[in-house]
Structure formats: structure tokens, C-alpha cells
Amino acid sequence: MSPSRPIARARGAVTALPRGARRVEGDPEQGRGLRLAVAASRFNERITERLLAGALDAMRAAGVRAADITVAFVPGAFELPFAARRLASSRRFDAVLCLGAVIRGGTPHFDFVAREAARGIARAAEASDVPVLFGVLTTDNVRQALDRSGGRLGNRGADVARAAIEMAHLARGLRGGRRA
Ligand code: INI
């Protein structure tokens, strides 16, 4: 892990804490010095490329250096947990993002792929103790996926990149001892 100060920054008025309480909250806009890995699925590539572009844009905007970004491509969302676990357990990254698009077809395949991707990605985070973020769209159709990958409802890849930066700081802020 690269060294950085733990971030304990208030981001707007959410809930007022009692006097003396400590607030730990990562800043999603401060990516400098963080090392991030992306596991990117190629299935439904028209969508996943847009998610990846959004994630990379958000990282660049937050100051993450290109040399601190690794992108591993997998065939489909079902393979994301394997890549996520390898990347996270390598201890070389402050956070790992998983990007994919599972679009409902006429068969139960959608449910199996979506469920296993979600479950496996959650397990990768638990097993590695490194933040692993879920950026897999699960939609009924391509239109909904386009809307969420740089269309009228934003870009889930960018959202997840900012969440990864926030969680990387949070992980540092919560590391060891009473006063991290
Ligand atoms: N993979 C996806 O990422 N999205 C899908 O919508 C999808 N569908 O619908 O089949 C999909 N299937 C492939 C799967 O992820 C694996 O790559 C494949 O089964 C090989 O293990």
C-alpha cells in the first residue's frame, strides 16, 4: 500500500455527531497516491467499454496516476470474482473495481450470472480485506444499460470509481488500533 494520511473529512451535513465523536469518511475526489485495479468484463462490450471509460475518466479527474491503474479483462461477469480475488489478495492495490453488464434475456442464465457475480465479488472483499466495488449493471434490456453507462442516468463506472477512492481512504482510516 502506498502511504497516505487517513482521511477524516466531513462531506456535507448528514448527521451531526456528538461533540468529541470521531468521524471517518473517505474523500472520493482525492485519488492521488492510490493504486487501483479494475476487473472489466467484455461480455456486452458496447456497455462495458462505456463503464470502463467512465471509471478511468473519474480516476483521472481525482488525480490517480495512469501508472497506478491496472485493468484486467475477463470474458464475462461470471469470471469477475476470480479476477477480483486475485487482484485484491495481491495486496498491491488500495481498492479493486469490478465492471460488467448482465442483461436479461429469455432464459434463467441472467439470474445465475448476476447472482454469482454479486456473491463472488462480495466474497473477494471479505477474503482479502481490501475494498472490492460492485460495478455490474443488471438490467432488463440494453436501453437501461445504455442509460446507466454514460447516458441519461449517469455512468455507473464513474460512480464506482469514486466509491473505490472513498473506500480506499476509509480502509486506511479504519486500519488497526483505536486511533488509526
Ligand atoms: N456474461 C455477462 O457479463 N453478461 C451477460 O449478460 C451474460 N449472459 O447473459 O449470458 C454473460 N454470460 C457469460 C458468463 O458471464 C461467462 O462468461 C460464461 O458463462 C463463461 O463462464
General description of the model:
This protein is α/β, with parallel strands linked by helices and 180 residues long. It has a single domain, classed as 3-Layer(aba) Sandwich (Rossmann fold). It is 39% helix and 19% strand. The protein has 5 helices and 6 strands; from the N terminus they run E-H-E-H-E-H-E-H-E-E-H. The strands form 2 sheets. A 4-stranded parallel sheet has the order 2-1-3-4, sandwiched between helices. Helix 3 links the parallel strand 3 and strand 4. Helix 1 crosses helix 5 and helix 2 packs parallel to helix 3. It is globular, with a radius of gyration of 17 Å. The N terminus is likely disordered. The site of 5-nitro-6-ribityl-amino-2,4(1H,3H)-pyrimidinedione has 16 residues, from strand 3 and helix 3.
The helix/strand order is EHEHEHEHEEH
Shape: globular
The ligands found in this model are: 5-nitro-6-ribityl-amino-2,4(1H,3H)-pyrimidinedione
CATH fold node name: Rossmann fold
* Largest sheet descriptor: 4 strands, parallel
Total count of helical runs of at least 4 residues: 5
Strand order of the largest sheet: 2-1-3-4
* Helix percent band: 25-40%
Nearest-integer average pLDDT: 90
Using only CA atoms, what is the Rg? 17 Å
CATH architecture grouping = 3-Layer(aba) Sandwich
CATH superfamily label = Lumazine/riboflavin synthase
Helix vs. strand class: alpha/beta
Strand content: 15-25%
